[in-house]
Amino acid sequence: MVSPRANWKGFIKFGEVACPVALYTAASSSDRITFNTLNRTTGNRVQREFVDSESGRTVSREDQVKGYEIENGQYIILEPEEVAATVPSSDKTLSIEAFIPCSEVDDVYLDKPYYLAPDKMGADAYKLLRDGMKRAKVAAIAKTVLFRRLRTVLIRPHGKGLIATTLNFDYEVRSSAKALDDIPDMKIEGEMLELAKHIINTKAGEFDTRAFDDRYEKAVAELVKAKLEGRTLPKRKAAPKPKTSDLLEALRESAGVVAARPKPAPATRNRGAARGKTAAVAKGSKTTSAQQRRAG
């Protein structure tokens, strides 16, 4: 088994204690099916070229520079060495600045996770940090230079080790106002709330990553296999149309509750006969009442 390659190596420091550590990718899309762009006529791969937007001529790599647009079509040119000078210097140290309760972590700031493992020596200090954080139920906020930027990292106990997740910068996290402020204010209670609680209870489960199903990846794999074997390509199934119903009715159906409805009166074969029978009963009732009065 090939050992994973570390993305970063350095030290983690808390107080005056430091130990060597390494970061390893925890989530990657490298195993997904990928495609190359080909020339349909020759079957050869095509290459990307940068061309001048005005002249249409190809621009060589040495003539390509970065530019910041200040106005429409006007740019400030930044030379490679000028850009390189802005990269902060790194001492290869993850410096823990604070320990915070795990409940204070806002998931919207989480960016990319990495396994944080001890690098050969220094395992005792690593274990001390891990077990101390577990017992205190806290996470650590640390900073270091990662991939040319000063990054803030959230460190948490994870199984036998630690996991370090880079955090989004504040300017990268968009406000929820535009997305959520238009939700109307309405109070849900009574039968609706009870039915919702019932559905939630019946759907209770556990977090099981084995149940995650990448249907697109499976479909693409089946498509490639069918093309290789010369089989008929799989046809896409039509998605079922959603039923239109009011919220309460949908909740009742989801919870398996059948709403009580009045039973319709049994249909009669001959409405005229039914009306005649009703009239006869009424006439009979009047006759009986008259006979009772005379008898009295």
Automatic annotation (TrEMBL):
InterPro entries tied to this protein: DNA_bd_Ku70/Ku80, Prok_Ku, SPOC-like_C_dom_sf
Residues covered by the Ku domain: 56-185
Record field: compositional bias (Polar residues): 285-296
Keyword terms: DNA damage, DNA recombination, DNA repair, DNA-binding
Superkingdom of this protein's organism: Bacteria
Region called Disordered, residue ranges: 255-296
One Pfam family per UniProt: Ku
Quaternary structure note: Homodimer. Interacts with LigD.
Described function: With LigD forms a non-homologous end joining (NHEJ) DNA repair enzyme, which repairs dsDNA breaks with reduced fidelity. Binds linear dsDNA with 5'- and 3'- overhangs but not closed circular dsDNA nor ssDNA. Recruits and stimulates the ligase activity of LigD.
HAMAP family attached to this UniProt entry: Prokaryotic_Ku (MF_01875)
Family, as annotated: Belongs to the prokaryotic Ku family.
Protein's name in the database: Non-homologous end joining protein Ku
